[in-house]
Amino acid sequence: MADPVDLGSLRFSPTAWLFEGGEHGANGTTIFVTRTPPGRAVNLHVHPYTETFLLLEGHGRWTAGETVVELAPEQLLVVPPETLHGFRNTGDVPLLVISVHESGALEQTFTDQEPA
């Protein structure tokens, strides 16, 4: 059995924590936990693998390719590989999002474009 990993040790930015599975024996999984403040957005970007978002708290708008969807707590969204995507907090509390990347390491290419 593996040892537990404290979220605090995975701080990626002031609002995000990153678990890269390849560093912890989970080669096919990378997990981001983010708390995005109201009004803030994650610019459009792509990955060479599928990313699945689980919204736990707040309300947000996701752009994935030509599709724009509103998510509420306890909803999932699957974004295919090489699909330009990003999201915006449209609510009045921080978004709590868990995103699962089907890769042992994070690979992403950002644009300077904001999501819808």
What are the SSEs and their pairings?
Elements: E1 11-13, E2 16-20, E3 30-36, E4 41-46, E5 51-57, E6 60-64, E7 67-71, E8 75-79, E9 85-89, E10 95-101, E11 109-110
Antiparallel strand pairs: 1-2, 2-3, 3-10, 4-9, 4-11, 5-8, 5-10, 6-7, 6-9
Describe this structure in words.
The protein is mainly beta. The protein has one domain (10-105): Jelly Rolls, CATH 2.60.120.10. Helix content is 0%, strand content 49%. A hairpin with a 2-residue loop joins β6 and β7. It is globular and about 40 Å long.
Task: Fill in the keyword field for this structure.
116 residues; mainly beta; Jelly Rolls; six-stranded antiparallel sheet; 11 strands; 0% helix; globular
In short:
By secondary structure, the chain is mostly beta strands. It contains no helices and eleven strands. It starts with 10 loop residues before the first strand and ends in a 6-residue tail after the last strand.
